[in-house]
Amino acid sequence: MAIDAKSSQEFVPIKEVRNGIIILKDGGLRSILLASSLNLSLKSADEQTAIISEFQNFLNGLDFPTQICMQSRRLDIRPYLMTLEERLKEQTEPLLKIQTKEYIDFIKSFTDEVNIMTKTFFIVVPYSANVIKSSNKMMDSFMGSGAPKKQIEDTKKAMDMASFEEKRTQLDQRVGVIISGLGRVGIRTSQLKTDQVVELFYKTFNPGDTSQGMKLQ
To answer: Cβ distance 212 to 82 under 8 Å?
Structure first.
């Protein structure tokens, strides 16, 4: 049964991605941060207590909602195997050639039996404001009924851009709070750019794509 592409897109509340910022259909903005992980089991008891306490203070200090997401994917071992295959071809020492071949077979057998997963952590920072939508009739009244249509459209676009910049400033402040707060816990963060946001949503809606995920820069 064929699926209507337009009807499927209606379930995605995203209007566009501009300068790494997601613009929703309702006018809200979202920024996504890629966060590093922290292994508490490698820390001492005192360090664990300090980290948990600092993270608790960070959460209690937030005055806006924040979403923490984890994406789990099976590790794509194919690029690593291709590198080993190339080295096998270049290997001239018979013993090393045998060892490399055995190692490749071991990796293939191990990954077939065990699902090696990679986990990626994201922080979604939102900002929403009451948006007053202006119709063409309102623009006509503001500029005069005799104003050219192009002039009205250009003014409307300028007003939309000014509204976006104002909301983005507020969103950037929230992003700064998140980056600073998590930094005190020992978690590094990096704000996703436009191409990374597009890649993230593409892989989210296409789970069959097993290519490697993005990394902290």
So the answer is: no
